[in-house]
Write the structure tokens for this entry.
Amino acid sequence: MVFADRAQAGELLAERLQGARDPVILALPRGGVAVAAPIARRLRAPLDVLVTRKIGYPPSPELGVGAVAEGGEPVFHRELLRRLGMTPESVADVVERERRELARRVSAYRGDRPLPELAGREVIVVDDGLATGGTARAALRAVNAAKPAKVTLAVPVGSPDTVASMRGEADEVVVLATPVDFRAVGQWYEHFEQLDDDDVLDLLDAASAGDDGPDELA
């Protein structure tokens, strides 16, 4: 399955989430917001962001050794750290830098407004795909710490092994495709443009106003 864009993927996910009861939708920015916007519209649910940041391996920052989500503690891939001869303390400077960027994005996307109240609510966490799952895992643990009634992770596509590992982090995992030849999230979208902060704000504003949002942000 290849999706036309994130908006189409969100529409298809929304069909699988129709049984949700008065949920709160939390999207992982940036790409997850474009997937979550049509879900929130179809479910008539509030949409907000849950900001996460990857903790990169210093010599090769694209290699994630962990992640941190707002309101949560860093979550590390301890086996990978061990293989690299490192410890969480070895990346303390990276964690601090990512916390600063996380705080900047929270301020940019939400201002002084806090996260929605999650205790006792059904929460749907949305991203545009699962590769290693580091940021999704950090997000789910931060959400679970708020004592929601139910947590669902919803993604259009993901690595089979990563999706399987997420079933221990959420009450339910809804995924449309788990291709055995998964290499990267973007390969499963015809259009996979990078979004910036203004794109995220446009999608959130449109969701708040009850609009569809600009098509080019999909």
User: Anything to note?
Assistant: The mean pLDDT is 94. The beta strands are 24-27, 47-49, 52-57, 60-69, 75-76, 122-126, 150-157, 172-177.
